């Protein structure tokens, strides 16, 4: 037999589940579409200046 407080707890959890799910998705979308927070130098990103590949065989 469920008591009144058990019903309130169940209803509270049922109400919070969609709300937390929407907040999770909204926060992810906000991070994707917000301005960059990358800290590149003012002259821009520099190209890679490593050694060229000497192995001609592709694997």
SS-based class: mainly alpha
Helical stretch count? 1
What Rg is obtained from the alpha carbons, in whole angstroms?
26 Å
List the helices and strands in order. H
Main pleated sheet? none
General form: elongated
Q: Give the N-to-C terminal Cα separation.
A: 66 Å
Which percent band covers the strand fraction? under 5%
Helical content band: 40-55%
Low-confidence stretches: none
Protein model, in words:
With 59 residues, the chain is mostly helical. The chain has a domain at 1-33. The chain is 51% helix and 0% strand.
Short synopsis of the structure:
The chain is mainly alpha-helical and about 60 residues long.
How are the secondary structure elements laid out?
Blueprint: H1 4-33
Q: Features of this protein?
A:
59 residues, mainly alpha, 1 helix, 51% helix
């Amino acid at each position: 037999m469920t008591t009144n407080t058990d019903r309130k707890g169940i209803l509270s959890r049922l109400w919070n589940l969609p709300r937390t799910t929407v907040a999770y998705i909204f926060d992810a979308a906000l991070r994707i579409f917000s301005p960059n927070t990358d800290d590149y130098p003012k002259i821009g990103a520099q190209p890679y200046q490593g050694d060229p590949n000497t192995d001609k065989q592709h694997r």
